[in-house]
Amino acid sequence: MKRKSQGLKQRPSHDTEREFGGTLGALCIPVLLPLTVMFLIGVSRSPEASLLQWPPALPSTDQLWDPLAPVLLLGWISLHALLYVLPLGKLSEGLVLRNGTRLKYPINGFHSLCISGMLLMLLLGLGAPLGSLFELLLPLAACAIAGSYLFSLYLYIRSFWVPSHALALGGNTGNPLYDFFIGRELNPRIGNFDLKYFCELRPGLIGWVVINLGMLMKEVELRGSPSLAMILVNSFQLLYVADALWNEDISKEAVLTTMDIVHDGFGFMLVFGDLAWVPFTYGMQAAFLVVHPQALSSLGAAAIIALNGVGYYVFRKSNSQKNQFRRDPTHPSVARLETIATATGKRLLVSGWWGLVRHPNYLGDLLMALAWSLPCGFSHLLPYFYVIYFAVLLIHREDRDERQCRAKYGLAWDTYCQRVPYRIFPYVY
Predict the structure, then answer these.
(1) b/e per residue, 364-387, with b = 16+ CB within 10 A?
(2) Which residue, of 269, 295, 321, is where some domain finishes?
(3) Burial bucket for residue 265 (CB in 10 Å: 0-12, 13-18, 19+)
(4) Ramachandran class of 191: left when φ > 0, alpha when ψ lies in -120 to 50, beta otherwise
(5) Vertex 115, ends 375 and 304: CA angle to 5°?
(6) According to DSSP H, which parts of 67-186 are helical?
(7) Which end of the chain is more exposed for a tag (fewer CB within 10 A), N or C?
(8) What is the pTM assigned to this prediction?
(9) Domain range for residue 306?
(10) What superkingdom heads the lineage (predicted)?
(11) pLDDT digits (tens, 9 = 90+) for 219-259
(12) Is residue 6 predicted with pLDDT exceeding 50?
């Protein structure tokens, strides 16, 4: 959601650089990551909550299947598909495609979040057992994973009936495994319904906070009230999702220029990430706290809130500065910032937040991720899985950004790197 890439030159498919380990990665990742999701959910519910337990306890068939799970999942996706097409918000244009056209996108994700919230409050008022989501986590995750495979297969097959300019530059290698994984078609649509954009910001992202709320309600069922740790986890992650969807409208230029939208094809990598990985692993702290309650002092809570606030401030201010510079470089808030000219006609910021490190938004992201884990204490590694994984993800993503920016900006990028030597962590990396 916070990446950029545009203007890459098309290369022949046999010369395209393959990401994520190429064919080996495309073979292993679609197997290992779904197993990881199921493993983490199972571990979070076990008394030991040990990531090192071997062999891991395998769920029974009864634990993996509940007829209610596919109904809930399809109903949730259908609700957000309906909200996506409703005339809410505004229509915005994406970047120019290789055939010279621009696609239009409905900017109404925050409306969908608010409507979802009102519906959930109505259901809670009517006595709906939202805490049952705790027991349904494994069946829901299994259905989301199975749906990701089927949806990715559909996307791969349909990509053979689209014109060549509609294919992603890196997803048309001729290797079926890799192309299925990375995605052949750049912007698959059914009519005006953009499948990638819909999945990127809707059912999985909002589903994440709904699952968190279910964990909170399960804790209420078990202990009479939510713990301070659970409230902090729910609040921090709701803020993160609400911010992403609010700024879909405020900073729509940034949303529609992310690497996911502009560069990556829509294949298993993004489908699984959007529909299964995000909702079922990003909120692992809440699931952990249901079985492993943590006492949190007022001082500890204040320190964690301050850390999350610092992370959010860095994240939001740096992104806002970049987006304002993109929209209007003459605006008073960015006009005095130092820049470097490039051969593309664009300029690179070398002062302000973007003179501190090359990716200050990633730094803010990681500080927030740490704040989400700290309410879970230090007795288990599991709640810190997200921040560890996210650090690896952002370092890899930064490396992808680095290579693409060097190809795009050439010597100007080398000059920028000399001026701003640190990538994410000042004086560290």
Answers:
(1) bbbbbbbbbbbbbbeebebbbbbb
(2) 295
(3) buried
(4) left
(5) 15
(6) 68-85, 109-125, 133-158, 176-182
(7) C
(8) 0.87
(9) 296-429
(10) Eukaryota
(11) 999 999 999 999 999 999 999 999 989 887 665 556 777 77
(12) no
